[in-house]
Give the backbone structure.
Amino acid sequence: MHRHRLTDKDVTTHWGIRTTTAARTPTDLAHTLDPASLTRAVNDAPRQPQINTIVAGYDVDAYWPAHRLVAELDGEAFHENFEAGLRVVRVTWDRLTTQPKREAARFRRLLV
């Protein structure tokens, strides 16, 4: 339960459900988490991508603004045409389903 009024900056929509942003959620949980859990929540918050968003006029599957990283899931059109100085990573369905740990490790390296 929120004791403060939420602004538009505090709220996002994820899979059609309104929720607080990755930046706001740790603030709301600060009084309920132990210090280690709160630290982990704060450190993980910037890693949450914007999903199905517009970047430089292109519709992208996932975007991490702080890391200037775009992920395209099984699509090449955006990858081949994008020239905004961002890193673009293509993730194929095959790699995602047959090598999920390898793909997770690749993204952990990219998001450092």
